[in-house]
Amino acid sequence: MRPPQIPDDDIERIAALCRLHILDTPPEERFDRITRTAQRVFGVPIALVSLIDRERQWFKSNAGLDQIETPRDISFCGHAILAEEPFVVNDAVSDERFANNPLVTGDLGLRFYAGVPVHEKGGWRVGTLCLIDRKARDFSDTDITTLRDLAQWAETELNLFSFEQATRLSREKESRLQAIVEHAGDAIITIDDQGVVDTFNPAATRVFRCKPDAIIGKPAVLLVARRFRAEIAGFIDELARHGIGDEGRINRQIFCRRADGAPFPANVVVSEMQVNGRRAFTAIVRDISERRRNAGTMKKLNRQLAETLSLQKAIINSTDYAIISVNTFGQVTMFNDGAQRMLGYAASEMRTQEALGRLLDPAEIGRRIEVLSQELGRPVRPGADVFIAKARAHKTDEAEWTYIRKDGTRLPVMLSITGVWGEDGQLTGFVGIAHDLSERKRVEQMKDEFIATLSHELRTPLTSIRGSLGLLAGGAAGEMPAVARNLLDIANKNCDRLVRLINDILDVEKVESGTMRFDAEVQTLLPLVEHAVAATHAYASQFHVSFDLRFEPGDMFVSVDADRLLQVIINLLSNAAKFAPTGDVVEVRLKRVPGCARLSVTDRGVGIPRQFHDRIFQKFAQADASDSRQKGGTGLGLNISKAIIERHGGRIGFESDPGVLTEFYFELPLVAAPT
Q: Any idea which of 32-41, 419-428, 529-538, 653-662 has the lowest mean pLDDT?
């Protein structure tokens, strides 16, 4: 982005703009009529009468736009006032000066701009009449001529200042000045060249506790503490003879005197004026008694504030967290020392939201767009929307990302993004706080490697134990006593449980390492579901639970690894049977949804507590994690099932109303029947 150049004579140009007395005035029909005409003539959604102030462009008329001002450094009109010729940008996205401008990349989505300068009567270019469109377009010479004519109209209205308006403004100024004098908080006193009081405003009455008729026409030195009177009398005499001079005014502190004789410290500002060809003076007197009394307190408060700000700054910059904040225009307002240490970039290299884009992997952003669009139920656009969509909706967005350091190395982080809201409820920006996950990832990898190694090492002896127990149960060692057979059954069941646990752990390890094998082929889904129901029937019978399978007519073809998908379906069925009430019927439903086949398994058991919903698919996750839980299980089945379904391009989820019903489901993309 290229900000508009600031001309050398910009101070004089702004002074000419201020002399128009039009900035920050209410909307006027005479200007709105022009922008509405421009909208109709050119068929654009937005037309503006824009005035370029020191740090902003302010819109006297803003047809089609809710904003009344934007920063000057991102304005197109700031470029347009640099020359007399019309300023036209046919397609901002392809123009290197504006391609990454927040007005182009942000909510406004500006693509086309055409502006003609508008002058004040002295010839200064104070603003523009401009057109904005959200799509690129051409602009012919005839269009430019028409826009010039409309700009002349706007210029005429801008400089229209009739005699009646001038008279009204003069009276308003006089009335305003009188109101200021009458309602001012400071004492305002006028003194003639003889040092006699001419006027005494109401605030002077309160400050000096003296009525106007008791002091008007008398020497002003009566208002000064006695020990200063001689000095002030000489001072007034000197002013009467020579005036204030080039300084324009005199500012000093003295001790004044109230009507009851009590002295008080005051700040006095004296300025000179001419009345009927003679010098006169205005003195503005401010009682600073309270200020002096509070000086010590203010110094203490300022010191405490400075210490607090210094402490906050020290905390922010000493933390190992990377803290980055941006305003609503995409400008980076904070890039703390922790971010600089973590990422290797200096704060000066990260001025804009676009610069922050270097920190992230485009492929990872693409995956995040898919997840976030599904979560929010609306398309999420590439760019800033990926990061601020949830924060703009008053939600905390916490997710794992991979930061790319300046040296190209990658760093896993947990990034939390929140919106910053003003007291008026308006969004003022966003802040992102990231902490390094490298150590946690390393520890997790060590743990996973340990579990995987341990599982492999346990598998061989467990296989031997299981085989030996099977031989004993089969009578290989002869008939056994009832007590021994009972103990043998217990050992056999626990051995099977250990084997299942080890197999689940190995499956998790394969999923996380990416080595789980999938042999997908196109097949109908119903036979797999029927197979799973039949395979789980015996298990469900021990809980006195049965299955009710219903399905829509017609084949539903999916591309899946049959063994892996059976593993998922059996897991969902066995979970439902295990947690369903005794004698319950678990509902199994297979139906079509747009583009997918959906299988759901519903039971009417105790359900899943709400506080556990976010962790249901995590490893070793169980709603009842106590040693006394009655249902058993490793807490790995749903984690493995989620990985298998997602590897097939599907999604898995659940809905639970505790004590009423719990439904687990997965959806797989439908494919064409094999030829």
A: 419-428
Confidence of residue 627 (pLDDT cuts 50, 70, 90): very low
Chain centroid to Cα 198, Å, comes to 59
Tokens at 629, concatenated = 């839980």
At 529-549, the pLDDT tens digits run 999 999 899 889 989 999 999
Kindly state whether residues 282 and 330 are assigned to the same domain: no
Instruction: Please check whether residue 607 is in contact with residue 598, taking contact to mean a CB–CB distance below 8 angstroms.
Output: no
Residue 152: exposed, middle, or buried by beta-carbon count in 10 A (0-12, 13-18, 19+)? Answer: middle
Q: What is the DSSP letter of 635?
A: S
386: pLDDT confidence band, cut at 50, 70 and 90? confident
Q: Count the neighbouring beta carbons within 10 Å of the beta carbon of residue 507.
A: 20
Structure tokens at 146: 């028409």
Tell me the two tokens of residue 83: 């020359």
The tokens describing 524, both together, are 């109908």
The secondary structure of 93-115 as a DSSP string is GG-TTTTT-HHHHSTT---EEEE
Domain boundary residue, one of 496, 513, 530: 513
Measured distance CA(508)–CA(514) in Å, rounded: 10
DSSP 8-state secondary structure symbol assigned to residue 48: E
Q: Are 152 and 14 in the same domain?
A: yes
The neighbouring-strand residues paired with 88 are: 114
Q: What tokens were used for 589?
A: 């439903």
Winning range, highest mean pLDDT, from 125-129, 187-191, 377-381, 510-514? 125-129
| Residue (of 560, 606, 554, 598) closest to 582 by Cα position | 606
